[in-house]
Amino acid sequence: MLVPPFLPPSAMTTTRNGQNLTSAMENISRGIREGVAHLRTENERLEGRTIQVQGRELVHFGSCSYLGLEMDTRLKVASAEAIGRYGTQFSSSRTFMELGLYEEYEALLSRMFGAPALVTPTTTLGHLAAVPLVVKDSDAVIMDHQAHASLGMAIQLLRARGVHIELIRHSRLDMLENRLNKLQNKYRKIWYFGDGVYSMYGDLAPLPGLMRLLEAYDNLWLYMDDAHGISWTGPYGSGYVNSWLSGHPRVIMTASLNKSFAAGGGAIIFPNQEMKQEVRTLGSTLIFGGPLQPAMLGAGMASARVHLSPELPVMQAELQQRLKWMRHYATEMGVPLYPNLSSPIAFVEVGAHEGGFQLMHRLMEAGYFVNLSVFPSVPRLRTGMRLTLTRHLQQADIVGVLAVIAEALPQILKAGGTSVEAVQAEFAKDQTPAPEPVAPAEAVLAIPDAA
Fold it and tell me: Which residue among 147, 190, 334, 439 is least enclosed by CB atoms within 10 Å?
């Protein structure tokens, strides 16, 4: 969701932004008081599948390291070796000097994505470096209302310059085309900002429709954040966006390297070398910020080599099997998932935040950790439980967590004066038809359906 600029406490009760901040503070503070937010692991060592929290071992449905590569020995060894060779940090702006590892790392990523790649300290800092440079004052921006908050931060820099900015409802390509028709003769370029895989509901961007619009409107450009789309899908793990739009001359894609890629930082994938060089040279957070440090450069290079190897499609297929289990057993047990589950993010629809807090307690008591998603991470009255799937999880884990939800959720909703069907009907008002999912590898097609 788009996050408005922060205002001082004195403004919190007199503006819409202030009301949003008050609601967010109330929800997060309640989560802290009730022991479901701002938690800490208590493990001396982690193995990926479980975490220890508040003295309890919980099956971990809250990790975005979808392929489980954070536990891969090759990444651990490469990280340690980089520290041994270069120290714990190399403290210099890349404008002055960078470790030689950067050149090899960006070359590996460029092979993986099939286009010029620029490594950034985080995906957010990448947006802040790139967006103010690639979007000119003579351009317009149309942004999906559920695009990631980090894109919203970068948009504020454009707003301060007077760039024309509009928001449209989530994945509503009819609204986008309407605005394209209105704006195409007024602006040099019209940018559409959105996510490849949306981080809360796990739904996919309508890329087939966006491809059609790129063909129909010569001055339409896309800036797509595929933070949750890389590694688990696409050739070499190049992501959901790249699966459809690889090599397109009017598409910029960003990727997170600290989710399924299991290293650190982010990457911006440009359609040409000239755009990369402009951001590399003039990006404010690259000039005035620090670099990615040796340990993460080492881990990232090792991860890139795994992605470019024959192992990657097998890993992708193993994760796809877990998606099949989730779809199958959720349907069998009547658990209301956000429709068309096609990514490793499964969202259980709850509705009001009170029910979400109650269900979170039931899940933790039963031995499961999930992400309780309340405002501001989702709209009001669209609370849900976000279950992320990784290769660490077993079939019994998925069956178990869904069994708890299937039993507890109808009881919680009934006590709150509603039902599973009513909640599903409310969520359906926001939804648009889903695009066809992209199979990440031929190996996926050979996986039998869950029995």
Answer: 334
Residue type, 94: R
CA distance 181 to 216: 11
Taking CA atoms, 276 is separated from 50, 140, 282, 380, 392, in Å, by 40, 21, 10, 39, 36
Task: Kindly report the length of the chain.
Answer: 451
Cα angle: 145, vertex 149, 155; to 5 degrees: 80
Terminus-to-terminus CA distance in the chain, angstroms? 37
Which residues are 192's β-sheet partners?
142, 222
pTM over 0.85: yes
The structural domains of the chain, ordered by start, are: 27-60+311-446 (3.90.1150.10), 89-307 (3.40.640.10)
Phi, psi dihedral angles at 373 (to 5 degrees): -105, 110
8 Å CB contact between 351 and 413? yes
3-state secondary structure of 217: coil
Give me the amino acid identity at 142.
Answer: I
In three-state secondary structure terms, 45 is: coil
Asked whether 217 and 190 are in contact (CB, 8 A), the reply is yes
Task: Give DSSP secondary structure letters for 360-427.
Answer: HHHHHHHTEE-EEE-TTTS-TT-EEEEEE--TT--HHHHHHHHHHHHHHHHHHHHHTT--HHHHHHHH
* Rounded-to-integer distance, Cα 278 and Cα 154, Å: 17
Give the pLDDT of the chain (451 residues) as one tens digit per residue. Answer: 444 443 333 333 457 778 889 999 999 999 999 999 999 999 999 999 999 999 999 999 999 999 999 999 999 999 999 999 999 999 999 999 999 999 999 999 999 999 999 999 999 999 999 999 999 999 999 999 999 999 999 999 999 999 999 999 999 999 999 999 999 999 999 999 999 999 999 999 999 999 999 999 999 999 999 999 999 999 999 999 999 999 999 999 999 999 999 999 999 999 999 999 999 999 999 999 999 999 999 999 999 999 999 999 999 999 999 999 999 999 999 999 998 899 999 999 999 999 999 999 999 999 999 999 999 999 989 999 999 999 999 999 999 999 999 999 999 999 999 999 999 999 998 876 655 555 433 333 333 333 3
Q: Tokens 């990631």, residue?
A: 148
